[in-house]
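About this split. The held-out portion is used to measure sequence recovery: a designer receives only the structure tokens and must propose an amino acid at every position. Recovery is the fraction of positions where the proposal matches the reference. Here is one held-out target exactly as it appears in the evaluation file.
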């Protein structure tokens, strides 16, 4: 195969390809090719990308800005408050609440560094998201960042597009679960 498809292209390379619009990056090997072949291969790849990325729940979440608001509250309000709480008190009740919210088990005062590092990571993700949103529309890199935020872990940029599709499905499912839980909690579903 001379050209990338969703099974061979990594999400990192795809992000560069889509942002730069350099159709030469669609080639798997560096040999001269006619422009019409590159254009056709690029078009085929874009069709595969669009089929892969057409996840309505995730796209709706990104477009409405709810994710950005949730991330802001978590990164700049909740986690810093938890760090302050650790500085003020160190009792079991508060440690259990921190573990419930963050999943981090704090046993020693030095473990507070994990919480501080997570706060910094979330704030960096928020800033990265803002930079991406300044561009027109939603970029592929922004989709990757949003999936990382929803799933709460960093994805390897060497992940192939077809593998990324599974993570996108997990993110969409998680959004649906959260929405259902919120609706139940608010009494809309019985």
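Reference sequence for scoring:
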């Amino acid at each position: 195969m001379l050209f990338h498809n969703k099974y061979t292209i990594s999400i990192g390379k795809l992000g560069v390809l889509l942002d730069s619009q350099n159709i030469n990056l669609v080639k798997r090997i560096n040999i001269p090719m006619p422009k019409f072949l590159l254009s056709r291969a690029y078009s085929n790849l874009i069709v595969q990308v669009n089929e892969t990325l057409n996840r309505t729940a995730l796209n709706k979440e990104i477009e409405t800005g709810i994710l950005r608001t949730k991330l802001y509250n978590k990164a700049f309000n909740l986690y810093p408050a938890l760090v302050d709480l650790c500085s003020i008190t160190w009792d079991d009740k508060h440690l259990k609440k921190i573990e419930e919210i963050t999943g981090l088990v704090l046993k020693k005062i030095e473990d507070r560094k994990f919480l501080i590092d997570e706060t910094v990571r979330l704030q960096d993700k928020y800033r990265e998201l803002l930079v991406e949103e300044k561009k027109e529309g939603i970029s592929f890199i922004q989709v990757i960042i949003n999936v990382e935020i929803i799933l709460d872990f960093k994805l390897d940029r060497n992940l192939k597009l077809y593998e990324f599709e599974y993570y996108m499905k997990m993110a969409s499912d998680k959004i649906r679960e959260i929405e259902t839980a919120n609706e139940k909690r608010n009494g809309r579903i019985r």
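Annotator remark: Residues 56-154 form one domain.
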